[in-house]
Specification:
The structure is a single chain. The protein has 450 residues and is α+β, with helices and mostly antiparallel strands. The protein contains 24 helices and 13 strands. The protein has a seven-stranded mixed sheet. Strands 6-7 form a two-stranded antiparallel ribbon. A two-stranded parallel ribbon has the order 10-11. Helix 7 runs parallel beside helix 9 (193-205) and helix 7 packs antiparallel against helix 10 (209-218). The chain binds adenosine-5'-triphosphate and magnesium ion. Adenosine-5'-triphosphate binds at residues 25-26, 39, 41, 112-113, 117-118, 155, 157-158, 161.
């Protein structure tokens, strides 16, 4: 196991001053797995003050009791050095009431969440593994350190961490740990939404997000965090007219599986695109199932989910648009202005993602990736974007209008530009400067005369 020089240097500085120092947590886990390591986290018996005196360029984050040392390699995150800790006395399912410095490495490992995260590595490359994390890495499962129920009661974020880490590593969750999550899933509401959201985003950004959502469902975390999605499982879509292979929830999962974007927000929108279907489900007398306006209802539901999970305004808006307009028509008889309206609604910056969602929707419903209509629609999107999009793209502006008609600035100037734009849009006239100037005086003779 070859460690980077800057990591070896940190080992040396501590050891030369007589302190104990170990790599811990995700770094050791990922080294054993042969995965790329970006976070080199250490634990030591030196106090934060002692660590800071060893590294003049270090900084202390009092909230976490962690000293950071800037990394040399830009690929690495800040090296985090944490003094041995023991954490006991949890009363609010969140944070330890008091952080106490531990005396030994073993004490520190014991407070960590999962066996595979509770290993340490010394400078010689020996692994200290009192909780048999290496065995669990071989078994490819996530297992709590000690009694799982107690551990989840101590800190409920671990519920989501178990699912997130299992997803990232494509592991399963060990039986007793899984049972404890299933029975204690509601504790997740003790955790700040932002932290839950961050775990969810890591699940969605992983290589196998479907595995993560399935694990959330299996552990009952889905019904706590995304009840709207949980309810969509089992909502039938089969009807005599239109063949749908899957129920709504399964279709959403299949769409996520087919989503070609790596952006977790686009993946999330793909996962939620039909979230309005359970609420709009109707069975007609002839047995046909309908979901009228499900995209309108669904966009509101998705918006609520984003707000509840404290997503940024920009992400929330993007989610809303992707869900709201996912049913866009690709009918070849659409006018250019209808296509322009679509671009304006979705936002130019989201068009690519909107198409990605549509393809995922098709594939996730058992259809072919594309159709000639969709291809033609894409071609028209490109064509239409070459055309003037608003009055700003006209080859004349308000000053020209005022000059030609000798009128002062007024609302009328804007109206005249709008009329010009409509004519250009309908291809009645060309967007050429001379043509437009002529058109201004031709269509407003009265003003010129006065
Ligand atoms: P990642 O690859 O996401 O960084 P990680 O395992 O390194 O995974 P971190 O959040 O960086 O996760 O945490 C570093 C280590 O701190 C973990 O490996 C674990 O030992 C410990 N740890 C983190 N969060 C908790 C928690 N809520 N309860 C107990 N131990 C935790
Ligand atoms: Mg880490």
């Amino acid at each position: 196991m070859q460690l980077p020089n800057e990591v070896l240097h940190i080992f040396d500085v501590f050891l030369n001053s007589g302190y104990e120092i170990f790599l811990v947590g995700g770094a050791v886990r990922d080294l054993v797995l042969g995965r790329e390591v970006r976070d080199w986290d250490f634990t030591t018996n030196a106090t934060p003050e002692q660590i800071q005196s060893l590294f003049p360029d270090s900084f202390y984050n009092n909230d976490f009791g962690t000293v950071g040392i800037p990394a040399t390699n830009p690929e690495f995150d800040v090296h985090e050095i944490t003094t041995y800790r023991t954490e006991r006395e949890y009363t609010d399912f969140r944070r330890p009431d008091s952080v106490e410095w531990g005396k030994t490495l073993n004490e520190d490992l014991e407070r960590r969440d999962f066996t595979i995260n509770a290993m340490a590595l010394n400078k010689e490359g020996e692994i200290i593994d009192p909780w048999e994390g290496q065995l669990d890495l071989k078994k490819k499962h996530i297992k709590a350190v000690g009694d799982p129920i107690e551990r989840f009661q101590e800190d409920a974020l671990r519920l989501m961490r178990a699912v997130r880490i299992a997803t990232q590593l494509e592991f399963t969750i060990e039986e007793k740990t899984l049972e404890a999550i299933q029975t204690h899933a509601p504790l997740i509401h003790k955790i700040a939404s932002e932290r839950v959201r961050d775990e969810l985003m890591k699940i969605l950004a992983s290589n196998n997000p479907v595995h993560g959502i399935e694990l959330m469902k299996e552990t009952n975390l889905l019904t706590e965090i995304l009840p709207e999605l949980d309810k969509s499982f089992g909502v039938e879509q089969k009807s005599p007219q239109r063949h749908h292979k899957y129920d709504v929830g399964t279709h959403l999962l299949m769409s996520l599986k087919e989503c070609k974007s790596t952006d977790p927000i686009v993946r999330f929108a793909t996962l939620l695109h039909d979230i309005g279907k359970p609420q709009t489900f109707k069975k007609q007398d002839n047995g046909v199932l309908t979901f009228y306006n499900h995209e309108v209802v669904g966009s509101r539901t998705a918006n609520n989910i984003m707000k509840r999970l404290k997503f940024s305004k920009a992400d929330t808006e993007k989610m809303f648009k992707l869900v709201r307009f996912h049913q866009f028509t690709v009918d070849e008889h659409q006018t250019d202005s209808a296509i322009r309206r679509f671009i304006r609604n979705v936002g130019m910056e989201n068009i690519e993602d909107m198409l990605t969602l549509r393809v995922a929707d098709r594939l996730g419903g058992g259809a072919r990736e594309t159709s000639w209509r969709l291809e033609e629609f894409k071609a028209r999107l490109i064509e239409v974007q070459k055309q003037p999009f608003s009055t700003k793209d006209l080859k004349v502006n308000g000053a020209d209008v005022m000059e030609v008609l000798s009128i002062p600035p007024s609302k009328q100037v804007g109206q005249i530009l709008n009329n010009l734009f409509k004519k250009v849009e309908e291809k009645e006239i060309e967007n050429e400067r001379e043509v437009l100037l002529n058109e201004i005086s031709r269509s407003h003779p009265k003003i010129t005369a006065s």
